[in-house]
Amino acid sequence: MSEADMDMREAAEHADRILDATLADLRPPVQWAHGPTTAGGHGVTRRRTVMTVISAERRGNFLGVVERGWQRRGIRIRGINNDRRSPAVYARTEDGFGVSLIFGGGQAFFEVDSPWVTPSEVAECAVAPHGPSYEGVYPLPRPHVRCAFWSAGAP
């Protein structure tokens, strides 16, 4: 299906599949919650917020796993921010979806933005979060789940 044939509901579902595959690459798995979905004009954005503490020492590993997974699936890296405190990777799928991983305030945020699509209703994501849902909570809490690997203080 090309982007011209896609409506916002289908674009949101496609974005969810990209996010699902991205998070499935992370071993050990991290806890995450749904961020807000935005839909308007002719596009939709899906977000996922990582609730596992990713230590400064492990951010490079985390970014590398995500980047390699995207490349394996044909998602092209468009830009990298190597800032020590707020690193980020920006990419684009073959069908025009923008994909990003951004660290802000020590927390990892995933976002997928659709290209121009036909307006339609957008349902909430059908995939349950990995961890508490934080339904009705905004903003989401800071990362607080500790992991022996991702939260470790040694590279």
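(ticket continues) Second input and output from the same batch:
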Amino acid sequence: MNFWNTIYEHFDPVAFEFFGLKIHWYGLAYLSALLFALMLAKYWVKNDKNRFSLSIKMLENYFIWAEIGVILGARIGYVIIYDPQKWEYFLQPWQIFNPFDSYGNFIGIRGMSYHGALVGFLFSSALFAIYKKVKFLMLLDLIALSVPLAYVFGRIGNFLNQELFGRVVENPAFFAFGILVDGQLRYPSQLIEAFLEGVVVFLIVLWMRQKTKMQGALIVTYGISYSAARFISEYFREPDLQMGVYAFGLSMGQILSAGMLVVTGLVYLLALKNYKKSNVKTNKVVNKKS
């Protein structure tokens, strides 16, 4: 066993205590992800004004809307999809966001769903676009460039919080990479996800940015590449105990990723329709000038 294999024995998920409240590394990672995504979004707004016609003030306002949608969607999505106590929550919905246990101890809000967050994000973005009269697809493209690298912080937070463990390493050739959890070596699936769903997806979206100006192309690229990356990552991640696997040995994460592809297809049709419409308008203007 090397130090990496036993890293959880030498690491405390709690970063520090503040007036009796335990501040976890995961919470700090989530905050870092939010700030980093906002920083990247500001960079793109300042340096790609042709694609993102948005003021910094409007951007900051949008991020508040988006973050509210993400938090609500992530938590509610987890309760609906994963939590075995979902029916108790339905009877007492105020408990969904209660950060205290039955004894009054602060435990934070545990259990977030990425795909639930995605639904909440899309809903809040649509509302913002309608209310502020800005282009919906432009907002989504901006997020497609800003979120993937920030997502890396979240997965590292999962790793530091010692949750979402990987599957048991069975091939001796990979024992050196395993993390000891309850006496078993498991893949560091959180870090695998950080790389595939964060770094790799960002590079693909960044590449697409150079290839097309079609509004909506970046979020479609993000949807396809993330779904593929998540599908692959799930083979290294232990399925939730209360869920197990389904047909063809697929996990719930893989099934939801397939559903994400369907939603991405609908967004593509919307983007293509808008693109054709804008081309028709451009051709009419050119013809009039001629």
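Agent notes: The helical segments are 25-47, 56-81, 86-91, 114-132, 136-160, 189-211, 217-233, 252-289. The chain has one domain: 7-54+134-289. Closing as not reproducible unless the customer responds.
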